[in-house]
């Protein structure tokens, strides 16, 4: 009996995921589903790279710009 309920639940979950994928695809077509906005503008990112290359403390730069250190490192890698 438990196996039967588990298989029904698994089937239902697969249907839910399929509908979710379809909804996301439609939203992307409409231009609604774009993801998160960048933390910094292109100008801010360029200034960040220049200042980091100049030897400024990265933690202080992150605090000043209001971003995490990991986000700072992602901008430096790009």
Walk me through this protein's architecture.
This protein is an all-alpha fold. It folds into 2 domains: 1-35; 36-78, Arc Repressor Mutant, subunit A, CATH 1.10.10. It contains 4 helices and no strands. The chain has helices at residues 2-30, 42-53, 58-65, 69-77.
Total separate domains: 2
Total helical segments? 4
What is the class of the largest domain in the CATH system?
Mainly Alpha
What is the C-alpha radius of gyration, as a whole number of Å? Answer: 22 Å
CATH topology of the largest domain: Arc Repressor Mutant, subunit A
Quick one: biggest sheet? none
The CATH architecture term of the largest domain is Orthogonal Bundle
Q: How many angstroms separate the termini?
A: 54 Å
Average pLDDT number: 94
Described by the principal axes of the CA atoms, the overall outline is elongated
Binned strand content: under 5%
> Unreliable runs, pLDDT <50, ≥5 residues?
none
Helical coverage, percent range? over 70%
Query: Which structural class do the helices and strands define?
Result: mainly alpha
Series of secondary-structure elements, N-terminal to C-terminal:
HHHH
Any descriptors?
single chain, 78 residues, 0% strand
Summarize the structure.
The protein has helices at residues 2-30, 42-53, 58-65, 69-77. The chain is mostly helical and 78 residues long.
């Amino acid at each position: 009996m438990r196996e039967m309920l588990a298989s029904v639940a698994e089937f239902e979950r697969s249907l839910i995921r399929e509908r979710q994928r379809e909804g996301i695809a439609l939203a992307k077509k409409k231009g609604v589903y774009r993801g998160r906005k960048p933390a910094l503008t292109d100008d801010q990112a360029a200034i960040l790279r220049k200042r980091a290359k100049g030897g400024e403390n990265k933690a202080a730069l992150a605090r000043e710009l209001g971003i995490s250190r990991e986000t700072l490192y992602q901008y430096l890698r790009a």
